[in-house]
Each structure stands twice: as C-alpha cells, then as structure tokens.
Amino acid sequence: MSGSMTDRPQSDTAGERPDCAAVIVAAGRGVRAGGDVPKQYARIGGEPVLRRTVGVFAAHPAVSTVVTVIHPDDEALARQAVGPAQVHFVDGGASRQESVCNGLKFLDKLDPEFVLVHDAARPFVTEDIIGKCLEAARRHGAAAAGVPMADTVKKTDGAGLVTDTIARDRLWRAQTPQAFRYRDLLAAHASAAGQALTDDAAVAEAAGLAVAMSPGSEDNFKITAAEDLARADRIARAAAPRITVVGHGFDVHAFGPGDHIVLCGVRIGHSHGLEGHSDADAGLHALTDALLGALGAGDIGQHFPDSDPQWRGAASNRFVRHALGLAAAADGRLVNLDLTIICERPKLQPHYDAMKRSLGDLTGLPPARIGLKATTTERLGFTGRGEGLAAQAVVSLDLLDTV
Residues 339-362: pLDDT tens digits? Predict the structure, then answer.
C-alpha cells in the first residue's frame, strides 16, 4: 500500500447512504503478548485473532462496510489473516488516535450515518454487544460498550497508601466497540489532533459529545500480554466446532530368521522373526499410519524413512507417540482404535490381554475403546503360506475443526 489508504469503498446500494460502517484498529505492534507476529495475527483456537474479530462485524446485519487499519508493513499478514471476508485496508498512524482518524477519513466518500470503532485484539465481541452499542448510539448520539465496576476501588497516595474509597456505583470499565454518528466523530478527531486520548469515547467527550454506556462482557477482554493470548486460546478452543475423522492403516512384514516377533509392543515367541528396518511391529505400524491418515499427515515412511539409520531396530511405540503428538497439536483426541492382525501363525489369542494392555498404556484408551482381533486367510496368499503377516488399523479422532 502507499499513503494511508487503499481499496476505495463501494456502497452495497447505489445512491443509498449506508447506515453503519466499522473501523477495526489493528495497527499496533503487540509486543507485550510475545510471539513471532503482532498479537492480532496470532492464532487462537486455530485461527488468527483478526479473522475472528473481523468476522463478527462482517457478518453483522447492521454493518455495511468493514475497514481494517493496519501497520504499513503488515499488509500481507493482514490479508492472509482476514481470509475471504470483504474488508478494506488502511494504513495506520503513529498512534491509535491517528490510526482511527485514518480509518474515518477513508469512509468520507461513503459517508455512513454511524460508525463503530473496535480493537482488533478483542476477538470475543458478539453480535449482541455490537447491536446494543449501536442502538444506544442511535438514542444518545454516541455509546461505548463496557462493564460496570464490581470490585471496590481505592485511591492511593504516591507511597501506595489508601487515601480514599471511591463509590463504584457509577464506574464502568470501558471496552470497544464504541459507536458514534460518523460526522460527529470525524469532527471530534479533527479537533483532538495532537492530544493523547485513550479511546474514541474520550475524543468524543473532549468535543462535548454525550456518550452513553452500553453493556459489554467480561469475555470481551483485550489481548495485551502473553497470558491474555493463552486465555483467549482456551476460550476459542472450548467454543470451536469439532469433527470426528477416521483413519486407516495397513502394514505387512515378511518372516525371517529369529525366535520371536513383536506385535503391539509385546514380545511373542515364534519359530521366526519379522524382517524390517525397525522392530517390524506391523500392528503399531498400521496404527501409526491410521493416525497419520486421519490427520492428513502423510504416512509412516515420510516421517520415519527406512533409509535413516537412527530408526534401525527402533521400538515402534516411538512412531505411535509421534503421531499422537501431532494429533494433540491439532487439539485432537483419540476416541477409539480397531486393530486386526492377519496371520496363520503364531496363535495370538493367548496374548490378547497383554497386547490390549500395551495398546492402552501407549494410547491412553480404556479397554472398551480398543478393538483387537486376529484372523487368517484360510491358507490363501502369502499369509496363508506362512510367509509373513499383515495388520490393518482403523482409528477415530475427535478434532478441532479449523479448516
């Protein structure tokens, strides 16, 4: 972008003055929240903070246009974060006040009757909060969302000693959105240029405008520090839609020299061993592929190639733990698994209990969520001829739906 503006606004209805536009302030650096990107681009519940915030305003029936004010260096981040929402981007200024003013000037040709100003870092604003704030502005000319003070408020001296207890019955903690008649707020910002005011309600007050308070929410908090970002992520994940996905895995190993095989992490005596780069545990290999398949994360060979010497003779429970770690990173939970071993020999029924215990210890699933079966191919094919064995696994995962 060049200058402070881009993407000229278009009215949805030609010749008709739009009722309300929204200015989302996202030009800050957000350094106190930590991370590799400013807080408005950090992910909570699997999606960027800015996308959640913009989405509520873009979907609101009273809002015809959404303008997002960003840092000049962040256009690529902003466009990626917002996704498909119809948004106009405007360069911010040296202060929040200047950034809002840039957003207001951008709306000049559109000339909405009302404008809502909201902090991008308040991603849990709701349609109800927006609607009530706008309705209060229609009645009084300007309004700010907020929460009445519930705690006792103390005034102290320079040494931190209490000098007074302040009555809290008329005290509010101001939030955003804040709603105004557009031309009134534009004029108020022009007259407040050079002043350091903390929000747009203060700009309006300095211009002599009456500002009403409108109910906000404790959840409509502003992400400022790292702990706020963590809290927001917890809230977003708890409220996010979830899906159940299914994965299937299949594995084969040939018999070779040896006196035992390993299946599901259990050593089982046999006249032969199983050939493979790792411990050749076909059951856990099939389970690993089923987990990776459910996640759309490739296959076991991509994660643990047999050309890599570090996996020679490795216990296959490492592969399963890796796949379970990927599921956990996606806020996923293994719901159940069903594993079938296909072989003529050895007979596996005597080992079922040990194999199920091993699978339960590895996955955290209770016995009722673990299916374990063995079958033969009636002496047909390579398993029927005793040349090797096969395993197939099916899993279901409960996942956060972030797609």
Answer: 999 999 999 999 999 999 999 999
Domain assignment present for 11: no
> Which range marks the domain in which residue 253 is found?
242-400
- Strand runs labelled E in 124-211: 142-148, 153-156, 162-166, 172-181
Structure tokens at 338: 């069903």
φ, ψ for residue 28 (rounded to 5)?
Answer: -75, 170
- Of the three residues 239, 274, 289, the one that is the final residue of a domain is 239
Count of beta carbons in the 10 Å neighbourhood of residue 300: 26
- Is 26 a domain residue? yes
Q: Which two tokens stand for residue 166?
A: 């302040």
Residue linked to tokens 């927001």: 232
Total tally of structural domains belonging to the chain: 2
pLDDT in tens, 125-183: 999 999 999 999 999 999 999 999 999 999 999 899 999 999 888 899 999 999 999 99
CATH number where 360 lies: 3.30.1330.50
Q: By the 8 A CB rule, do 9 and 110 touch?
A: yes
